[in-house]
Specification:
The chain is of the alpha/beta class. It is built from 15 helices and twelve strands.
């Protein structure tokens, strides 16, 4: 996929006006060469009137160049930013619609790199590409001018440019490969840096691990540096090559052609001026080739990510989606002989859950207990519809849940998983009573840490236990029929832990809410209506 294909696929306007103005600007710029040449000739003949006429033409051409270039670049910027926003928004929307299992397995660094870094590079390269297109027009104009001066010089110039381009393109594939390798290495570098940032505590208490992680980071940095240097040297070679090419071309025109063409000396100065004039445009065109190559790589990366999401994300097509109908109440959720398998890339089963037979009644408080790795979190994700059963059936009341119904079913739940995320705002709540939120913050003993002001929490960088309390506030405000908690009380002090089980959970039960909680707190098992014990991916009643 190339950047031209990107524009063709995503465009909403033809862009003909930009093309026209770019052509106008390019032709106006090229005409300046002829005007300057003829004006110089007029001045040499002491023709004041003629030189004034050329001055007027020069001003007109210059103004046409400025206005055309400004219009083309301004509107090209507007269009390209619109296209980037469209693609970025579309891919982000597909990410949020993809299934949890796919999202858990995809490299997050690929998402960040593609949506941020690659789109930024496309944006930055757009103006350079537009400029190079205008330079190409100037080049064409100048070549016509050279042809008018001397057909021999024209064929030599065109032949030299074609030969130079062929030689240049012969090793372009290797450079494109290097550009792709740079992108992959930068993604790998981001992954390594993430280990240092997210694993800071673990590295701080283990010097050997810290040194090993940093060594790995440094190795990736070194290899990235080598590839970038190799690519940079290739670009430097391009630049020196283009400079040398023009000097050789001028030498041929100045030193060799006069030996074979008697009348050639009359136009040699004009030809040299024309060749010197096209140095800038040709260098612009040649210089944009690596930029264009990187932009093509960036476009390819974006579409590869989108294709991966389309292929493996599990997004339900619009034609198969059921009309969204909120489910406000239920009598029973039932799992019948459901299983779920975690698999690796080779489809080898890494963990097997089930078969599970389970019924959850409305208004129940159910505790799920068991050791780490027994499958509690997997079962919770199965119950909430975040995972589809590998086999078996999930019922809501007496209705079998099909995939198109899952989005509505998931709306029954308010979740706090072990790897929960705190949002800085209460998204999706509409109008929020600020006083009610701050009262809850005080109830959770967080009023000295954060407040809800101007539609957002003033501080979310809290301890794990405090962040869980903040998540509880958002969950209570959602007021969903079912609350699902995964070790929410694990990081709380004894006082708040007792308050959570004896007060908060009992208040939810009194309000008719259903609570499903994974916990290790056997001291409070009496709070639950039922305690389900899990071992090796299966449920055992206690």
């Amino acid at each position: 996929m190339h950047i031209i294909d990107f524009y063709k696929k995503e465009r909403t306007t033809s862009g003909i006006d930009i093309l026209v103005m770019a052509c106008t600007s390019g032709l106006s710029n090229g005409s300046l060469l002829a005007i300057i040449t003829f004006a110089a000739k007029a001045v040499s003949r002491d023709s004041d009137g003629g030189s004034f006429r050329y001055l007027i033409l020069f001003i007109i051409s210059l103004l046409s160049f400025i206005m055309g270039k400004r219009y083309a670049l301004k509107h090209a910027t507007i269009i390209i930013e619109g296209l980037i926003k469209k693609v970025r928004t579309r891919i982000t929307n597909k990410i949020r619609q993809s299934e949890l299992l796919f999202f858990e397995n995809i490299e997050k660094s690929h998402i960040y790199t593609r949506i941020n870094q690659d789109t930024n590079f496309i944006s930055q390269s757009a103006l350079l590409i537009i400029n190079s297109c205008q330079s190409a027009l100037i080049l064409v104009f100048c070549l016509f001018y050279i042809a008018w001066l001397s057909k021999v010089a024209f064929f030599i110039t065109v032949g030299a440019i074609i030969a130079a381009v062929i030689i240049y393109l012969m090793y372009r594939k290797e450079v494109n490969h290097l550009l792709q390798e740079i992108t992959d290495k930068e993604t790998e570098l981001f992954d390594s840096l993430t280990h240092i940032v997210d694993g800071f505590k673990e590295l701080k208490v283990n010097r050997r691990k810290s040194d090993h992680v940093f060594t790995h980071f440094k190795d990736i940095s070194d290899s990235t540096e080598k590839i970038k240097i190799k690519t940079g040297i290739a670009f430097v070679t391009d630049f020196v090559y283009s400079q040398t090419f023009f000097y050789i071309l001028i030498a041929i025109l100045v030193f060799l052609l006069p030996m074979f063409i008697d009348t050639y000396s009359e136009v040699i100065i004009k030809l040299v001026m024309a060749v010197l004039f096209i140095i800038g445009p040709v260098e612009m065109v040649v210089g944009v080739i690596p930029v264009l190559a990187r932009a093509n790589v960036a476009v390819g990366n974006l579409y590869k990510l989108e294709e991966l999401i389309d292929k493996e994300g599990g997004i339900i097509p619009q034609t198969e989606q059921a009309p969204f109908q909120p489910i406000e109440s239920f009598r029973e959720i039932r799992i019948d002989k459901a299983t779920f398998n975690y698999k690796d890339k080779d489809e080898k089963v890494l963990f097997h859950l089930g078969p599970i037979d389970l019924s959850i009644k409305s208004g129940e408080v159910v505790f799920l207990v068991g050791g780490n790795g027994c499958g509690k979190s997997t079962l919770l994700k199965l119950l909430t519809g975040l995972y589809y059963p590998s086999s078996g059936v999930l019922y809501l009341d007496d209705d079998v849940l099909s995939k198109p119904i899952y989005p509505s079913y998931r709306e029954l739940f308010s979740l706090i998983f072990a790897d929960f995320h705190i949002f800085d705002r209460l998204y999706g709540f509409g109008e929020v009573d600020t006083k009610k939120v701050n009262d809850l913050i005080k109830l959770m003993e967080l009023d000295k840490k954060t407040q809800y002001v101007d539609g957002k929490f003033t501080e979310t960088n809290l301890s794990t236990g405090q962040r869980k309390r903040l998540a509880l506030i958002a969950a209570f405000l959602e007021d969903k029929p079912i609350y699902m908690f995964d070790e929410v009380a694990a990081d709380q002090d004894p006082e708040f832990r007792a308050y959570f089980y004896n007060e908060l959970l009992m208040d939810l039960k009194k309000r008719g809410k259903t609570v499903i909680a994974a916990t290790h707190d056997d001291k409070y098992f009496h709070v639950a209506d039922r305690v389900l014990k899990m071992e090796y991916g299966k449920i055992q009643l206690t």
